[in-house]
Structures are given as C-alpha cells and as structure tokens.
Design goal:
Elements (H helix, E strand, L loop, with lengths): L1 H16 L8 H23 L1 H11 E8 L5 E2 L1 H9 L4 E15 L4 E14 L2 E16 L2 E14 L1
Parallel strand pairs: 1-6
Antiparallel strand pairs: 1-2, 3-4, 4-5, 5-6
C-alpha cells in the first residue's frame, strides 16, 4: 500500500514540475493578432451562413477538429460543414464579447475564450443561447488551424 501512495505522490510531484508557461512579448502579441483576425472574420460569415461559412470552417478547422456543443455533444467537421452548407442551420444574430487570448509554445498555440450570444434557426426551431467558448489554435507548417472548439451553455431560451 505504501508503494502505491509513494508512486502516486511521485507522479503528482513530477507533473507539477512540468507546467505550461504563457509566451509573452512581441511574438505572443503577433500570434494573438493573427488568431483574433480569424475571430473577427468569423462573425459576418456566421450571419451570412450557407456555403460561405462552410468554406470558412473548411479553411480554418483541422480535419480532426474536436467540436463540443453547449449540450456536451460532439459533431465531426464533415457534419458541421454539411449543416452550414445545406443551410440546415442559420444564425439570425451573433454577439461576441469578453475575448481573452493565451499564447503558448513560443507563439505556436493560442487559446481564445469568449462569451457569445446567438439566435439560431435550426429548420424552423428558433432558439437563443449564451455560451462560454474556448477555441484552441495551433500553427502547423506556418498555417493556423483550429483544433478544438468547445462551448458551455450559460443561458438558453
């Protein structure tokens, strides 16, 4: 029993020594600016919907992006893009605020958090949701790709 406790303590101690440190300075600011531009470009496309927004996802999301909806469900990139391309989903309004950016790995990883309130039309069913979002962006071969998009419902009507 003591060996198990010591082994657990050793694992906890070792992992606490390896902690992620944010990148600071001009490199971090440049990475933030680049990724925040995607966020700024996204909202008008969300409201336009259809193929224009589907193309945005095709361009910026990694093929194996992890998308977690506010209800805890997941969806593949292919299905998500298909929903937008077919106009199966339409956003009637979108307001985003409280953006925060965190930069890691010498400017190659950026995490953006924000609050978004949307009014969606899902095939005639209209709903309004306020969610806390987190997007993780990774620079691969000089190109930014979103690898995680996670939502948590704050309020739903």
């Amino acid at each position: 029993m003591r060996k198990i406790l010591w082994a657990g303590l050793l694992v906890v101690s070792a992992t606490s020594l390896v902690s992620a440190q944010q990148t600071m300075g001009p490199l971090a600011e440049h990475a933030k600016d680049q990724v925040m531009q995607f966020e700024k470009d996204k909202v008008p496309l969300l409201l336009q919907g259809g193929p224009a927004f589907a193309d945005f996802f095709d361009r910026v999301d990694a093929d194996d992006v992890v998308i977690i909806n506010g209800n805890g469900g997941t969806i593949t990139k292919a299905k998500h893009v298909a929903n937008w391309r077919s106009n199966g989903r339409k956003q009637l309004s979108n307001s985003q605020h409280d953006h925060h950016a965190y930069v890691y790995d010498n400017g190659n990883v950026v995490i953006i958090t924000y609050i978004g309130t949307t009014k969606d039309d899902m095939g005639g069913k209209v709903s309004t949701n306020t969610v806390r979002c987190a997007d993780t962006w990774v620079k691969v071969d000089g190109k930014w790709l979103r690898v995680v998009h996670a939502n948590a419902n704050i309020a739903q009507q």
